[in-house]
Amino acid sequence: MTKDTIWYILMTDSHSLIMARVREGNKKEELVKAAKYLFMTEGINQVSISKIVNKAGVAQGTFYLYFDSKDEILDAVAENISQDILRNVQHIAEDDVLNAFEKLGNIKKMFFDFLLSTDEVILHFHGEEHAKAHDRLAEAINRQLLPVFKDIVWQGNQEGIFNTDYPDEAAEFVLAISGASHSLNIEDKKAVKRWVSAADDFLIKGLGVKELDTRH
Amino acid sequence: MTKDTIWYILMTDSHSLIMARVREGNKKEELVKAAKYLFMTEGINQVSISKIVNKAGVAQGTFYLYFDSKDEILDAVAENISQDILRNVQHIAEDDVLNAFEKLGNIKKMFFDFLLSTDEVILHFHGEEHAKAHDRLAEAINRQLLPVFKDIVWQGNQEGIFNTDYPDEAAEFVLAISGASHSLNIEDKKAVKRWVSAADDFLIKGLGVKELDTRH
Question: Is B57 left (phi over 0), alpha (psi -120 to 50) or beta?
């Protein structure tokens, strides 16, 4: 065996290993994507594992390579949704054109669009049997959102749009108030609208926003 | 048997039944009281079931009449603590001498005294294995506190101390911000103090408090 041959084997091996991993990753991802779509469009109870594998175009056995149960893929879907939320928040936070006030407004809009589009999956996680998964998710989201919110409040202070002596803590309060939307019955559109106005009012005052037309 | 005898028997029976219930209730209560004291003074891990029954002055078998495990009596202790918090909040809320601002201030003080005195029990419930019990408790506390907070905000609006167009929602935000104290490391006294000032600042602004010396 020449040196070249060894290299060739090593490279081919690692290449197929990598490709196998990519394929594996894709199948899992396809399953989560399919489950997410079905849960959101047909409702969690209406969706069976066979429906998910059909939609994903994989064999039933493949499902059990990655998940033990429907509940487990539901956890993965929730994780996936929270990753989407985080990605969107980060995208808004990194937009250089927006001032801090606009950033918060865009995040709020995105957040409510998400809440309304994924409500069944989200509501499902408020059941007692999902308390652990829900807590873990909410904590993960909050932990990752907090630094982004802190940056925005600091930016707003620097821009002179916000006026708070406690930017870091204020970011926590913004997050806490956003989290209070949990208690909303999102089917009651009027209550949701009122809640959003109330939250705007409280946050605008709490952050010391001044001289903005949006205030009144 | 005369009518009187029947009455006598009935009354004696129901009397002993009631007394038996009172004794039962007392033993359970004694166990919870003992466990609470021990958890708070010695730490949860240091306390065994035999220590609890010794302190309560009951037989080990009596413990298992009411609880299956140490974890179960821990749930009861947490429930008991939350009842104490609620009772104290209600006591403050019903004090006719206090204005709305003083009520919120007193509740805050009570809350932090509680947090600092029961911290190990409370922190324990933040472990993942207690997510369910913690969620249930936090939800129960919030559900019972919310109407009290709403009353206080409405009172403040009427007194002209608060100025918010959304008193009901504002009460939810006050509650949400109080709940954000969860993330505090209560051993870091400086951070706790700063957090309390920050929350005061945010709530005072958010509720539209005006012309109070406490504002600055």
Answer: left
